[in-house]
Amino acid sequence: MSVNSNHFKLKEVAPYYNVLKKIAFPSLRKILFWNISFTILASIFIFRNLTQSFILALSFIASSLISDFSSSFILLKNDSLMDLRRNMASSFFTNAVWLTFLLLSFIFKASLQTMFYLGFPIALTLRLLALSSLSSSKPFNIVAAALLEPVLCFIFVFQILNLSFLKSALTFLIVIPLTFSYVFLTLKNVEEKGLKNVGFSTLEFFRSFLKSWFNNENSSLEEYLDKIGVYKDIKVATISFRRKTDKKLKGVMVVSNFHPGPILEVGSSNLPYLIQKELESKFNIVAAVPHGVSGHETNLVSFKENKKIIESVIKLLSESVYFDKASQFLRVEYGKAKASCQVFGDSSLETLTLSPENMEDIPLMLNYELTEFGKNYFKDIAIIDAHNSINAIIELSDFDIKLLFNTGVAAIEKASKEPEFPFKFGKAKVEFNYTPKQGLGYGGATIFLIQVKNQLCSYITIDGNNMKSGLREKILNKIKELNVEDGEIMTTDTHVVNGLISAKLGYYPIGEGFNEEEFIEKILKGVNEALKDLEECEAAFNSNFVKVKVFGRNSMENLVNSIYSFAKRISISFIATMFLIEAALIFALKTFSF
């Protein structure tokens, strides 16, 4: 068994999109405030004369505002990514780079004029590179938008910095052709590599991704994901509970090997809630969709594929054969690995966790191996990755995976020998006022209680992406006070919470973004509600395989490697090119002293 290293690499992208998040999401007011404040403070340090400082600051701010409004409402007006807020952010970054060069004049003992000329290549290149990468507008409009602010800046500061017309012209003649050549050749190379590796434009994919992330425009991104997707048979299992008396359905647990990713509402990111919502509205029940064993290679590529899973779940519920007996909930622990197993009729339900130790997605191969082993004892088995303990991005070691496998095997063997008895089932739905930014998805929490003889156990499913380490244990200890002997606290692994905030993981796991004591209190109220709902029930276990289009391991590997290569190539080439352009400009300015 080996861990999907590209899944881990995808998780490691979090720090990078945190940087993008900080740049892309500040409000217009904040960006304007930062631009004005930094420009004024820098200008005061540069001149230390209020009149001159005011003129310099006004020059930079005016060039920014004129450029921003012209770009947003004329040059790039049809580009959803380049709205006024992001154009202002781009201008603020340009100003910050240029003013920093002016401030460096005190360190390098150079004139303000020279440092202004030397700041131009980096300011222009960053601006042109950003606009060319992000904007879908015509090339002429992109070039005009990139040049407008720097050119206006030259004009507005010309007198206050006592610039030379000939040196300014020389700077333009050297910098503009070299900068444009660099950006054109770099992006051309990126496009060629992208076409070779993934079969489509890397830049267009990047723009589609940002439109989805920033503006919730998902259709274009899903079209690209569909191109790299591969068909795979995904297992879908349902454990349904109905009253013994009138045969009315009460609750359904759905366990599947799709992965709820990649981010926000793209692909299957929000599929656990979509399944829950469909079942609850259609059957007037409580539905739970805990995280099945899966990784990012089984992200579904589009909403169209989600519908296939939902339709499959509904079909399974119409084919149910019910049993009126279940075994007691049992737990096996080997080292830090924990497994639970419970039998319903001729099939079993198993959960796996490493909590309170760090854990991430359990590899899909482990599911196949445990399922094959379980068939020696049961007609069918559903395996849940409880996904309930994280503090840092980690990769499960081979030792951890082997430990989980051995623990799962022991739990299956032990459960197969357990007697079955009539049981009671109770359910509850818990709603919260928390949002995806705080780490909670739209599905809230669902509570299933199962009583076999004198043992009461719980399956609590929370719509979130993993859980703050230690919170699972706190909840289990608290519900013991309500005579719930054991159980498992699970998450759905929804990725609707990902990419909304700047955090070390790229999201808040359950318990990190809100008051956990308040959260536990609401869970306890839900458990009390489920206790009141306990009544004799029957259970049905059904499963099938659905052919859907998923990311696929090779496709995901090519895509992730292309993104890494894209970022690495631009970073290295930018530093090298800027060094050469700056050297050429310094040589020219010294050689041609006007």
Give an overview in words.
- The chain is α+β, with helices and mostly antiparallel strands and 594 residues long.
- The protein folds into 2 domains: 10-213 and 566-591; 230-550, no CATH class.
- 52% of the residues lie in helices and 19% in strands.
- It has 18 helices and 14 strands.
- Strands 1, 2, 3, 4, 5, 10, 11, 12, 13 and 14 form a 10-stranded mixed β-sheet that branches.
- The chain is elongated.
- The termini are far apart.
Quick summary of this structure?
With 594 residues, the chain is an alpha+beta fold. Helix content is 52%, strand content 19%.
SSE diagram, text form:
Elements: H1 5-11, H2 14-24, H3 28-47, H4 50-75, H5 84-103, H6 105-108, H7 112-134, H8 139-157, H9 165-197, H10 202-215, H11 219-228, E1 230-243, E2 249-256, H12 271-283, E3 286-288, H13 303-317, E4 322-323, E5 325-326, E6 330-334, E7 337-344, E8 347-353, H14 364-374, E9 380-385, H15 398-416, E10 421-430, E11 440-452, E12 455-464, H16 471-480, E13 486-491, H17 516-532, E14 535-550, H18 553-591
Parallel strand pairs: 2-3, 8-9, 12-13
Antiparallel strand pairs: 1-2, 1-14, 4-14, 5-10, 6-7, 7-8, 10-11, 10-14, 11-12
Helix pairs in contact: 1-18, 3-4, 3-5, 4-5, 4-8, 5-7, 7-8, 7-9, 7-18, 9-18, 10-11, 12-13, 14-15, 16-17
What are its keywords?
single chain; 594 residues; alpha+beta; 2 domains; ten-stranded mixed beta sheet; four-stranded mixed beta sheet; elongated; disordered N terminus
